[in-house]
Structure formats: C-alpha cells, structure tokens
Design a protein that fits this description.
The structure holds 3 protein chains of 3 kinds. By secondary structure, chain A is an alpha/beta fold. Chain A has one domain: Metal-dependent hydrolases (TIM Barrel, Alpha-Beta Barrel). In chain A, 33% of the residues lie in helices and 22% in strands. Chain A has 18 helices and 26 strands. Chain A is globular and about 70 Å long. By secondary structure, chain B is an alpha/beta fold. Chain B is 37% helix and 20% strand. The two termini of chain B are 36 Å apart. In chain C, the strands form 2 sheets. In chain C, strands 3-1-4-6-7-8-9-10-11-12-15-14-13 form a 13-stranded mixed β-sheet. A two-stranded parallel ribbon of chain C has the order 2-5. In chain C, a hairpin with a 7-residue loop joins β14 and β15. The chains are: A alpha/beta, B alpha/beta, C mainly beta. Chains A and B meet through α1, α4 and β18 of A and α2, α3, β5, α4 and α9 of B.
C-alpha cells in the first residue's frame, strides 16, 4: 500500500528539511516520490507538522523493579476503588498496555528501558512484549556483578571482559550496556554507606572508576553503537556535581553517556546546603564532545523513584512519601523503590526542577542532550509535553517560576536564560539524536529508506497541547493514532543487538554459575519463543 | 482423540469451545480460577476474563497475597536467594515451617559457606526462632542454634526482639529478658544477615513485626529477608496480573475496567455467597477442584483426561507438557525462568484453549453487535 | 417534604456500588436521572431503577428502605446531610466520608468507616473486620469524625487510625488498634488478643478488659481517668462510658516494638 502524507511542514534535521514537503510511504518504509502510481491513501497534512516518531532513550517501563513499584503503590493506580486526589501516575494507568497507548498518543515509536538486570532480562522482555504499538529496547546493567568484579580482580584480559559483556548482552537481548553507581551496590552489601568514584569495592579491590573504564573499553571494543550509559555515584545528594564532573573527566575522549544529569546538578552551598551546579556541569558537557547526557527532569507531583542504585535508594528511603519503600539485595545490582512527592512549595523540589531546565538551556548542542524525566523518577513520561513547552517558550517558564518559593528562584540562573528551543532542535533532541545515539541509522529521520515511524502534530501556541496529542501517528507505515487516540492495536518489536557470543565464554559462565551460585547460566537467556509474539525481536547491527 | 466433553459426553473440540463461550456469555459474573501460574496461561486467562467481565483468582493466591499485602503497607528489604547463599554470614529462621515451605530453597541457601564480602570464609551462624521441637540437620553440615518459642508466641517474641534491638523497654514475654538482649547483640553483629520465613504461614502483623525488625537492624548493619511464598505459581500469576492490570490478584472486570479487591474477588467467597454463577477452573483433575466450586456450573480445564464422577458442564483436557519454553516464576532465581522445552502434545496448551474461547466469545459479541 | 427514599425491590444478585447515592451527588437530579445511575458491578450494568423503587424527596435526607450485605460504598465521600438504612450494608460503609450523618440499623461488612475524615457513622448492629481501616496500601485509616458501633466489631478495628473517635459498645476482635497512629478507640466489652500491636500513639480504652497484651506494653499503674469522665459527657447517648469508666483503670504504654507512645487502659484489678 502506497501512502502519501501531503502538504505538511516536515521537520527533519538530518535531511535539512524544515518546510513544506510530501512524504511517501510504502511497505513500512519512507520511499522516494514515485513517478507513476497514485497513492492508495492520502493523509492531508496541510497546516500540520510532520516529524519522525519520537524516541525515548531512558524510561523505566518494564522490569521487576517497575513491577515492585506497582505492587508497592496500589493506591497510585486509577480505579483502585474510586478515590480523590488523582496522581500523574494514576492518569497513565501504569500497565504495560497503557504505557504503549500513552506513548503512541504523544507520537513516540521507540522507548528504551534503561535498567534490565541480567538475571531478570526475561521479566523485562515479558513486560516489553506486552507493551503495544511502539518498539522498545533495554539496556543491560553490569558493574556490580560478581563475575565482572572477579574478572577485574583477577586481572583478566580485556578480551575476556569483552567476551563476558558480549555474552551478557546476547543472553539478555539488550541494545546497550549501563552501569549504575558502579560498585556501589556491591559495596553497600558490605555495609559501605558512602561511595565515590575512587573508592574501592571491599573484597574486590577495584574502584568505581576502574569499573566504568573497563566497561567503557569493552563497549567500545565490541563496537556496541550506544556508548556506555552511566549512572554516576552519589546521585541526589548535595555535592553530587563533583561525582558527575569526575565521571565526565574520566571519559578521556571515548564516548560516554551520563544518565539523568539533573540529579547530579547539586552543590552544598547556600544556607540550606543545597545549591545549583547546573552551569558548571553544562560547561563541562559543552567542553567534552564525547559526552552525551539525558536530564531526568523533575516535574511537580507525587511519583515514585525506581532505581537499581541500591545504596542511593537505601540512603533516601526515609525521605520518601508515602513512607514505605522496598530495598532489594539482588545478586549483582539489586535496587530500591521509594515513592516521592516533588512539591512546588519545597525549596529542594523547586531547585531540582530549575536545575534540570538550566542544563537543557545551557548545554548548547541539541545532539548531546536528551529530554528524559527518567520516568517515573523525576516525573511520569506523560509530563513530556509540558517539558517541551517549558523548553520552547520562556513565557511558560516565567509562569512556572512565579509559583515557586523565592529562595529557589534566587538560587537558579534560570530567570536569565531566554533560549527557546526551536522545532528543529526539538526534532534533533527527540528523534534524530536518540536514533544516532542508539545506532539506528534508519530511524529518527524521514529520508527514503527510513522506517516509516512518523508523527504528525497540530501546531499551536500551546506547545504542551501540540505534543500531548499527535494528529496522526504511523508505526511501520501503518496509521495507529488519529487525533490523539489509538485507532489500531498492534505490537512492535524489542530491538536487540546482534551480539556474537563466544562459545567458550558460554561454557565458562555455565561452570561459574554452577560452581558459585548453584544455578544454571542458561537461565539468563531470553528465548525467542518465550514472549508470546511471532517476531519479538528486531536485530540491530554492531557499529 | 477426545479433548472435550459436554455434560460428560464426548464432544467435538470446536463445539465445546463454542458451548463454553456461550456459557460464559450467558453468565452474570463468571469466576476464572484454579491452579495456574505460567506466564502464557496467566496472560490468556486475564485476557479471557477481561473480555468476559469476570473475576480472577488463583487457587493458592492467599499464600502470595498475604505477603504482598504486607509489602505494600509497610515496605520491605528483600534479598535474592543467590546473594544470600553467597554473602549471608547469619541466617535467622522464624517460625516452625520456615524450612518446609520451600525445602529446595532452604537447601540452596544453606549448602555452601559464604564466599563474598566481609563474611567470606564463614562460618555461617544459623539461628532458629520458634522452630520445630526436633530441628532438622542442615544440608552441608552445621548446627542450628535454637531459640525456643511456641508458635502462638512468635509475634510477642519478635516484638521483644525489636524493642531490644532499638533499645526500648519491654516486659515479660515468651523469651527471658537476657535471652532477648543476647540475641539482639548477636543480630547486630551480623555482617550480612538474612531472616528466612514462610510468608504464607505467618499472620500479616507477624510479618510486619518481622520486617520492622529488619528495617531497625539496617540502621547499623546489613540485614535482608527471604520470604518463602509457599506457591511460586501464585506469585508468578500475581506478577503477570500486576503489569497487565496494575495490581496483583484478585481482580474483577465486571465494569469493563480492571478492579482490584482481595475480599470482593476472593473465589471462595464469590462461590459461597452466590455472587458468581459460573466457574472456569484450571487444574489437574476432579480431585483438584475445591469443595467451594462443586455446587456451581463449571467449565473444567484439566491436564488429566480421566472421567469425573460428577461431570462438569464442560470439560477440556489440555497438554501437560510444552513444545516451547514454559515461563514460570522461580523462587531460587527470584524471577521468571524459561523451562527447557518438553515433548509436543496433540492437545492444545491451556493458553491456546483459553485463547480459543476468547476468540469464540469475541466472534459472538461481534455477531450480536452486527 | 420528606427525604428521598430508595426501597429495595429484592435481594440483589450482585454486589452494588452505591457510591453515587449521596446527597451532594443527587441534589438537583430528576427521578429519571437518578434511576439511570449505574450501581451494578457486573457486566449487566444494573442501574438504580433496576434495584430500587424511588420515592423522590429532599436529597439531603436519604433513606434506604431495606438493606443488604451487598450494599457496598454506601455514603462514599459524603459531605453532608443524612443517610439512613433500615437493614444491613456491605463493605466500605462511609468510606472517605467527610461530613453528615450515616446511620445503618443493621450490620455492616468489612472496612466500615474506612478512611473516615469527618461526620458521624452509626452502625446499629455489628461491624465486620477492619473497622475504619485503610484499604490495601494506604498509609492511614480513619482521620477524623465519630464512628459508633452498637454491637461488636471484627478483627483489626481502628487499624492505622490517625484522628477521631471510635466507640464500640460490644467486643472487638483480634488485633484492635493495630498500627494506630493517634486517635481514640473506646470499647465497652472485651478486646481479643493482640490489641495495640505496633501502635505508635493513640488511646485505647477497653471497659471489659483485654484477654492479653503483648510484652511490649508496659504497666504504668492505676489511674483515675478524669479525662474519660469529661469525655463521657460529650457522648450522652452512650451510657456505659460514664458507668464503666468511672472505675479505676490500669494504663499500659506501648507498643515499644514501634514508637511506644500509645496507651491502653483496662479495668484495674
């Protein structure tokens, strides 16, 4: 079937397009305008903005921890008895199904779960398989696991470590590798309660820095397109900017992605001992072209933090609201679920909000900064349209600032920043850059050959309204959303790397797991036929 | 090969599917329950129940839901068995059935000495509060230090211990004051301790007391818990329900959207009160059917083809093995595990059967709408 | 003009969600509009008109002629006015009610007064388990108002109660006042085992005594409860308070397994 999206304002920074153009789609791909044949379907896009489908590189949508958060907070879900005081999470229903529907309605076509534990990769993929419409992917977490730390302690070769990383990526069907407070969870199980980049993990004698560098080398050596995705040490505490700065400096010219930088934008200055380091971090990022970051923007309201940073979640457990939490001593990372309420009236929450925006506006290159809220940690993903409006419209920012405590407004340089993101910059940050960062050459743009994931928006003064509700969404060339409502249910794929795994490493892992854990290593694997979908995976080439 | 019976008479499979869909359509409030828990079956059952506007329970849900109730009311520390096996230098078993609830798991945790972290090299201390009179030998050798306590006194003992650990006063109870003080010191000296208990056997407040103790101990050192759910299948079904509907079991779809209520959608209560008028039950055979459901119209989905003494309205037999990977929650692993494929069967899998009924139901609804 | 009356036609086959039938929601509605409100909980989609004969009247005084253990959520989030039921009700009577008066002449099911915020709830018969308690996952139970059960109450009455007063004339089941945060529970009869388990603050007064308090309740000696006599004057309709609580009471402080600032009073000697 040949479809033509006619007369829209196409914003495709990769092709250098920012103006009226027709788009042709056939068999799930964007095609050249054909000479002869008439389209089977014409979608009138006159007056509308046409972009590639949006891509979210960091959103906790599918894992054992996410499910634990659902279990911990039944009262956050809609329809749990009729109850007043709806939360943002209650608006999204918070199921696998609603995750797909709500993302699609906003024009998203690919979402990455950033924290898949190797031992519960199957759980993550089972949930991903139940998320309709969009494609999805997951990053596998290493850096607190006994295998890696033991290999490092024993001084094993970079090749052995690469083989182990490749084996894990292959077993877990991952699109990349993440490390979360590298060594911190392992140290916490030995009752270490503060852990920084040059601290050693007890018993293993390796530092957090060494773990990050080792994984960065392995990811680079294996030609995994997505750079090592790093959740730094000391998230969320006053003074955490030092940890982020040290991690940025440790990149040493090789690609490194820092997750939710906002949560590290904190100094210990001011009379409350909590100040903004947004400018400092933005300058560091600007000066280091090998660094990419996502923000983890805080938006106000009750939500829940879900993290595999067990040490951090333990430290923050008593500050949660409502006052209940789950701390998981997993093998390897573990993690924690701590509910939180970001209040507009709170100096701390307000400053967190401002620091996120400082970073967005001060980091100059839209190819290197990503729009996340670290769903649901800073805010549920349904807050994205409001976030885009804040970036695109300084008057919207001014209105929000009026609501915030004076002390917080005084502590941020946000009032001085008048940058407004252009549509083209939004298209880079939400489409082109994520596709490039993840190594997906046929996504994030609309040139012939691209996957026909196309979002069409109705432009207007209210940018939040524009991005909340796509006028049209095509997924693989098929219309799935019209006027902000899903019209066709279908299932996308989980994108996974074509990782070549070394048979010897497989045998070694089988022996190691039996010997040390008394468990079979093949339980890490995610079999294709286990997920209840005909083609659960889409394969992605190494670089 | 016959795979379906209507009123005890052999029937064509397709006819029985249509009859089952008809029964479900005619039912005011069907209940979907039984002994299931693999992911494919749970998914299919939830889909069918949602379409039918029914209620969903699982035969052993109480075992898992008691624990999940406490978890969501008070939070918890929870440890992966694999980490406890390698790291815990102290285990405190609580309650008479702490080992029996999952003997395999207890063996798994106890077999080796700790070889990670500060407790590396062992020995591991194993204490048992309120264990059985005759303590079993531990796998891998080692001695259990018994702290005697009658089963009915467990909560009292735990409360004294919790007060003792946090330096609060307490009065006379099932354990002598000096025993409590000594035990509190011991627990605080653990480098990585794990409290092991049969969650399915303990009252919710007992569990809350015990989780409070662990939270208090973590102020100074590291403790975690290993709750044994008593039925990994029910726990797995609750997990699937949680990402599908937003809550663990029990669920109802009578109003078109999922609702969660442990009391309203309790299958036994629904049957006893007469609120449900049809039961769709998954099990191995007639012996597996709870008493509560025997008086109600029944669609039985069983793996055993033996005729029933009292035949249900409709009976299907399904495969007991799977040619593909079967996904179940595994307590040793602490997550879902794919079981190696077995032999193919001529019979449909439970999921295929339930999907078949759902499709027939769907077709009938569309026909009516047209 | 008399109150709006709902007369039950027959025992309902399914549980009913009566949450829409409160004064604030019905005020200004026509009979047709009321009759069309959905109250069923199965796919049949029962409406008010299917279940009740409606006699129109003032919406701030609603009367249910005939009750059922299947009447759930009666008086849900009620803000004011009065509802009276001449019979039994099911689960979650007066849940999250903030004001007004709710009277049930028969028995109430589980979670009666769940999360009560204000107003007055009276149960003429017995109440089920978790009187005034939170629903799964909620961190607080009753937060204000007055709840009076003339009969007895089931297990875990006043669970996670934070504010307000509950009076149970009869007995309470096991684990009354579990996890109590604050507030007052007065029991005319006896409390079964486990009263006050994990209570942090708050006051429990049991005129008929408790079968056993845990070891984390400490005996603070005998006290004459002047405050109770004052309280008795506040509830003149509940005669036993003045009579039975005039005697000396023994105070136990606990639960020291939790914060330990709660108190349980039982008759001395």
């Amino acid at each position: 079937m040949l479809t033509c999206l006619k007369g829209g304002h196409v914003v495709d920074p990769v092709a250098g397009l920012d103006g009226p153009a027709d788009l042709w789609v056939e068999d799930g791909r964007v095609v050249e305008a054909p000479d002869g044949p008439r389209p089977d379907r014409i979608i009138d896009c006159a007056g509308l903005v046409v972009m590639a489908g949006a891509i979210d590189i960091h959103s906790h949508i599918a894992s054992g921890h996410v499910n634990t958060a659902r279990l911990l907070l039944p009262e956050f879900h809609k329809a749990f008895q009729a109850r007043p005081g709806a939360t943002k999470l209650s608006q999204i229903g918070w199921t696998a199904e609603e995750t797909g529907l709500r993302y699609a309605e906003m024009g998203f076509t690919l979402v990455v779960e950033p924290a898949m534990a190797p031992s519960s990769a199957l759980h993550s993929h089972l949930e991903l398989a139940d998320i309709p419409i969009i494609d999805k992917a997951a990053l596998v977490v290493l850096g607190n696991d006994d295998v890696l730390l033991s290999l490092m302690r024993a001084g094993e070769s970079p090749q052995a470590i690469e083989d182990y990383v490749a084996w894990t990526v292959g077993s877990a069907r991952a699109l990349g590798v993440k490390t979360i407070n590298a060594g911190g969870s392992a140290a916490f199980k030995d009752n270490v309660r503060a852990f920084s980049i040059d601290d050693e993990v007890p018993d293993y004698g390796v530092t957090s820095r060494a773990i990050v560098k080792t994984l960065q080398s392995a990811v680079t050596g294996l030609k995994i397109p997505h750079p090592l995705h790093v959740h730094c040490n000391n998230l969320g505490i006053a003074g955490s900017a030092d940890s982020a700065a040290a991690t940025i400096q440790s990149a040493e010219g090789l690609p490194l992605h820092l997750a939710h930088l906002q949560f590290y934008g904190y100094g210990a200055g001011g009379k409350r001992g909590f100040s903004s380091e947004g400018q400092r971090l933005a300058e560091l990022v600007n000066a280091r072209p090998e660094i990419t970051v996502d923000i983890g923007q805080v938006m106000f309201g009750p939500t829940v933090t879900i993290s595999s940073d067990e040490l951090r979640q333990f430290a923050g457990r008593t500050a949660g609201s409502p006052g209940k939490y789950v701390i998981m001593d997993g093998e390897a990372n573990g993690g924690g679920v701590v509910p939180i309420d970001y209040k507009e009236t709170s100096y701390y929450s307000a400053l967190q909000w401002a620091i996120g925006l400082e970073l967005f506006l001060l980091i100059k290159d839209p190819w290197r900064v990503f729009f996340t809220t670290d769903h649901p940690n800073g805010a549920p993903f349904t807050a994205y349209p409001e976030l885009f409006a804040l970036l695109m419209d300084r008057d919207v920012r001014a209105r929000w600032l009026e609501m915030l405590p004076d002390a917080a407004v005084k502590a941020t340089c946000l009032t001085e920043l008048d940058r407004e993101y252009t549509l083209a910059e939004i298209a880079i940050m939400t489409r082109a850059a994520p596709a490039r960062l993840l190594g997906l050459p046929d996504r994030g743009h609309l040139s012939p050959g691209a996957v026909a994931d196309i979002a069409v928006y109705r432009p207007g003064e209210d940018k939040a309204q524009m991005f909340a509700s796509a006028a049209w969404l095509l997924k693989d060339g098929e219309v799935v959303v019209e006027n902000g409502a899903v019209t066709r249910r279908r299932f996308g794929k989980a994108l996974a790397l074509k990782a070549e795994t070394d048979a010897a490493m497989g045998r070694r892992m089988e022996r190691y797991m039996q010997d040390r854990y008394g468990l079979p290593a093949h339980w890490f694997a995610v079999p294709q036929d286990a997920l209840g979908r005909e083609t659960p995976f889409g394969w992605v080439d190494m670089r | 090969m016959t795979t379906a019976w209507i009123d005890g008479e052999a029937a064509e499979h397709a006819a029985a599917i249509a009859a089952a869909a008809g029964r479900i359509r005619a039912s005011r409030h069907p209940l979907f329950t039984g002994d299931y828990g693999d992911v494919a079956t749970t998914r299919a059952l939830l889909r069918l129940a949602a379409q039918a506007g029914g209620a969903v329970d699982q035969q052993n849900a109480a075992a898992a839901l008691g624990w999940l109730s406490v978890l969501r009311e008070t939070g918890s520390f929870v440890g992966a068995p694999a980490e406890i096996r390698r790291r815990a230098d102290m285990l405190l078993f609580v309650g008479p059935n702490a080992l029996q609830a999952a003997p395999e798991l207890a063996d798994f945790v106890l077999t080796e000495q700790p070889d990670l972290g500060r407790g590396k090299g062992g020995p591991r201390r194993v204490l048992w509060l309120g264990g059985p009179a005759a303590l079993p030998d531990l796998p891998g050798g080692g001695r259990v230090e018994a702290v005697a306590c009658a089963p009915g006194q467990l909560r009292a003992a735990l409360s004294m211990l919790r007060a003792g650990v946090s330096g609060q006063r307490f009065g006379k109870g099932p354990l002598a004051t000096d025993v409590i003080h000594a035990l509190a010191v011991t627990l605080r000296e653990a480098r990585f301790g794990a409290l092991v208990f049969a969650a399915c056997d303990l009252d919710e407040l007992d569990l809350e007391m015990l989780l409070g103790l662990v939270a208090d101990l973590n102020a100074e050192t590291r403790w975690t818990t290993l709750p044994l759910s008593g039925d990994p299948a029910a726990f797995g079904a609750a997990q699937v329900a949680t990402w599908t509907a937003g809550w663990p079991l029990r669920l109802g779809f009578g109003r078109g959207v999922p609702e969660h209520d442990l009391w309203r959608f309790d299958g036994a209560r629904l049957a006893a009160s007469g609120e449900c008028d049809l039961v769709v039950h998954l099990g191995s055979g007639e012996a597996d059917l709870p008493e509560a459901f025997r008086e109600l119209p029944l669609i039985a989905v069983t793996s055993d083809a033996t005729a029933w003494r009292s035949e249900p309205a409709i009976r299907f037999t399904v495969a007991s093995t799977s040619a593909g990977h079967l996904i179940r929650f595994n307590e040793l692993w602490g997550s879902f595990v794919a079981a190696a494929p077995g032999t193919a069967s001529d019979r449909p899998s439970p999921a295929e059967l339930l999907d078949g009924i759902a499709e027939a139901l769907d077709a009938a609804s569309q026909e009516e709408a047209a | 003009m008399s109150g709006l009356t709902f007369t039950l036609r027959a025992e309902p086959e399914e549980r009913l969600d009566l949450s829409p039938l409160v004064p604030s929601r019905l005020s200004g509605s026509s009979e047709r509009e009321i009759a069309a409100l959905p109250i069923g909980t199965t796919k049949r989609g029962l409406t008010v008109g299917d279940v009740f004969a409606i006699m129109m009247g003032e919406a701030d005084a609603i009367r249910f002629d005939g009750g059922s253990a299947r009447f759930d959520n009666l008086g849900f989030a009620m803000q004011g006015g009065e509802i009276r039921v001449t019979g039994d009700v099911g689960a979650c009577l007066g849940r999250r009610m903030a004001g007004g008066r709710l009277v049930v002449e028969g028995n109430a099911g589980p979670f009666a007064g769940s999360g009560l915020l204000g107003g007055e709830v009276v149960v003429g018969g017995n109440a089920g388990d978790r009187l005034a308690g939170p629903l799964g996952g909620e961190m607080t139970g009753m937060r204000g108002g007055f709840l009076h059960v003339t009969g007895s109450a089931g297990r875990r009455a006043a669970d996670r109660m934070r504010r307000g007063v509950i009076v149970v004339d009869g007995d309470v089941g096991e684990d009354a006042a579990s996890r109590m945060i604050a507030g007052t529970l007065l029991v005319g009869g006896r409390a079964a085992d486990g009263a006050g388990t994990l209570m942090r603050r708050g006051t429990v007064i049991v005129a008929g005594g408790v079968s056993e308090l845990g070891p984390t309740f400490l005996d603070n000696g005998v006290a004459q409860l002047l405050a109770l006599r004052l309280m008795a004057r506040g509830y003149p309709g509940i005669g036993w308070i003045g009579e039975r609580l005039a005697r000396p009471m023994r105070r136990f402080g606990g639960d020291t397994a939790a914060l330990g600032k709660g108190e349980v009073f039982v008759p001395a000697g």
